[in-house]
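Students often ask why we bother predicting the structure of a whole assembly rather than each chain alone. The short answer is interfaces. A chain on its own may look different once its partners are present, and contacts between molecules only exist in the joint model. In this exercise we take two input lines together and write out one structure for the complete complex. Read the inputs first and try to guess which parts will touch.
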Amino acid sequence: MTLDRRKLADHAAGWGFAAPAVVLIGVFGLVPVVWSFALSFQHTDLTSPGTFAGGENYAKLVADPLFWDAARRTLVYVALFVPVTLALALPIAVMLNQRIRGVVLYRLAVSVPLVTSTVATGIMFSWLANPQFGLVNAALDAVGLPKQGFFSDPGQALFAVVAMTVWGWLGFAVIIYLAALQNVPRDLLEASSLDGCGRARSFWHVELPLVSPATGFLLVWLTINGLQLFDAVYVTTKGGPLRATTVLVYHLYNEAFVSFDGGYAAAIGCAVFVLIAAFTLLQLRFNRRSHYEVR
Amino acid sequence: MRRPSALHLVLLPLSVVMVTPLVWMLLVSVSTQAESRRFPPGLPSGIEWENYLAAMRDAPLGSWLVNSFVVSVVCVAGNLVLCSLAGYAFARIRFLGGRVAFFLMLATLMVPFQIVMLPLLIMMRSLGLVDTLGALIAPNLATAFGVFLMRQFFTTLPRELEEAARIDGASRLRTLLQVLLPLMRPTLATLAVLTFLQTWNDFLWPLIVVQSPDAMTVQLGLQSFQGAHTTNWPKLMAGTVLSQLPVLLVFFFAQRFFVRSVAAAGIK
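Now the answer. The structure tokens for the assembled complex follow.
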């Protein structure tokens, strides 16, 4: 009997400690997920009580050319943003991992965009990429190239958003790679150089395989964040010009807060969720196959 | 004497590119109107402090900064206390439903915020919190990420530490406060920095739940300021500098620590 009483005390203590956080996260994190799914089967403006809509929102989604346009743009964005960030981050991390003078300052310069908010980044880049007097056009002008519209050109706006978000996320990817590179055992690199590997070969055959978990993590993390792109678009182009930067979440925002079609917005949200879950599972499966471990 | 590395030839231009947006933000913020719009752009001839005064005068930047500060500090405090308690329970106490609760909580980490925000807005309306700081604080007071971080930390501690105190008759709470708290400092600092950064720079949630300027955070306020003053770049940049000053200061003074936190948590 005393044993049971102790167990009871454990249950009470456990819930006593965990309850405040669990209740808050349950109410504000878990309940809305179920609720959102329910909203996607309603007609609602999010203000007054909704009415049951059956599968109409999903039927609208399948037939909505704007949705498919937004989905295509989102995928184009992710297909550029993720590989470009990774391809820049790894060589930079390798260079910043060397013992050279001033490396601390270089690391500082690369990682400072990390703390810069998307709103501030958007304002800075709007000026830098200004079609009339921006710094980027001054650079183009200096080498004899014509001025470009960037955010105001429908053909370039999405690429300008890619460039801006790569600037914002590069430091993060570099930090993750640096941490992984610093875990590569020195004796492995020494062994490979004793075996006659040059710097480049030991990078390909030793360091690159050993940082593959970091690559896998970054692939998943950057993809998830890329699929949720919104802030950077809102503060620079508001989805324009000519919808050129209306990505999925921006479309969702428009439907919910401009067209007041909350049910349809919830359906788009569920589609984004499915997309994210599918990508994550796919990449996790792929990562498991290409995982190396040092014993 | 070592030969200077050839890597400088790559790293120096790269660093210049990375800091250029921030440097020009500073330069434009002290330029005159005309200087900010000439082509090609150049260095300002003097320092126009007036831009900062104008930014403060034309927008309630001061109260936006205070709002951001209040929201961030309260959320940091909430996360430190609530996530420590829950993390400890999930790591150390076997209790009914504990594993299920932990699993469900982790599951919320995989859900994008855009799914959560629509019902969350309805909830805030019925709680009467729309257009108040309460709406910005309540959903961020305890985070699944924070609980997970603290739980992972507690599982790395040797059990003997607590057992000795428990045998001496100390309660769980006392053990946590007197024995474990000193060891938790680095992890708590990580959680504090990340929570602060996230709430300070948050944009989408304030955008949909706050409309009146009185309850705006500095990020949201700055965005509305941008909409109203697209032609006055120096003033807009001055406001932008002010909005980023707190996080930039934290970053420069605690850079090493900061970088370690980001690497540990994988968050921007």
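Check your guess against this: Chain A touches chain B through 101 residues (CB under 8 Å).
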